[in-house]
Structure to design on (194 residues):
């Protein structure tokens, strides 16, 4: 596996970096959210920008054939860090339950550590899959539900939190199964190394 640092200049990777830097305005807005309720609208707009940037970087990478090893690292890291920061900020203002924060952070930490282990073993970066993307989308929607302060006792809220938790568990299991399969292929010599 070769990671070229000059790949950072490719547009999809720059978009992923942009998403990572959204941490700064998100953190600032959450710090002042108690002083002005309308701040929540700006947070929703930032969430939509982050979501669109996630769609855009993947689309551009595929259309322009700029899928790089560096991009396979930056894109999921940007997603995980941004989601983690937003979830932590919501937790600090008592907007999401402790158990939900633990599930989201634990999933991301395990996938990150597992990704490093797999990359060292097989010499390739394990790219995100559709189940992982759907899970991140479910977490993002649940975050939006909390930002706009949907009643936690409502059926709508409960359905979303259960779906999001279920997807977190299923996607983690999916990553583990995929990793085990790749390790088996690597052991049998069916994975080509760069």
């Amino acid at each position: 596996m070769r990671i070229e640092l000059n790949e950072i200049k490719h547009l999809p990777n720059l978009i992923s970096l942009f998403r990572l830097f959204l941490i700064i305005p998100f953190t600032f807005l959450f710090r002042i959210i108690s002083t002005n309720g309308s701040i929540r609208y700006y947070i929703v707009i930032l969430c939509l920008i982050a979501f669109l940037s996630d769609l855009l970087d993947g689309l551009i990478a595929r259309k322009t054939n700029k899928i790089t090893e560096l991009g396979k690292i930056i894109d999921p890291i940007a997603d995980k860090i941004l989601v983690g920061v937003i979830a932590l900020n919501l937790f600090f203002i008592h907007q999401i339950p402790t158990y939900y924060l633990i599930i989201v952070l634990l999933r991301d930490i395990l996938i990150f550590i597992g990704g490093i282990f797999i990359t060292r073993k097989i010499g390739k970066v394990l790219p995100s899959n559709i189940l992982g993307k759907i899970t991140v989308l479910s977490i993002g929607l649940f975050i939006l539900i909390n930002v706009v302060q949907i009643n936690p006792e409502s059926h709508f809220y409960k359905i979303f939190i259960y779906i999001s938790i279920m997807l977190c568990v299923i996607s983690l299991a999916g990553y583990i199964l995929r990793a085990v399969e790749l390790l088996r292929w690597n052991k049998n010599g069916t994975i080509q190394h760069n």
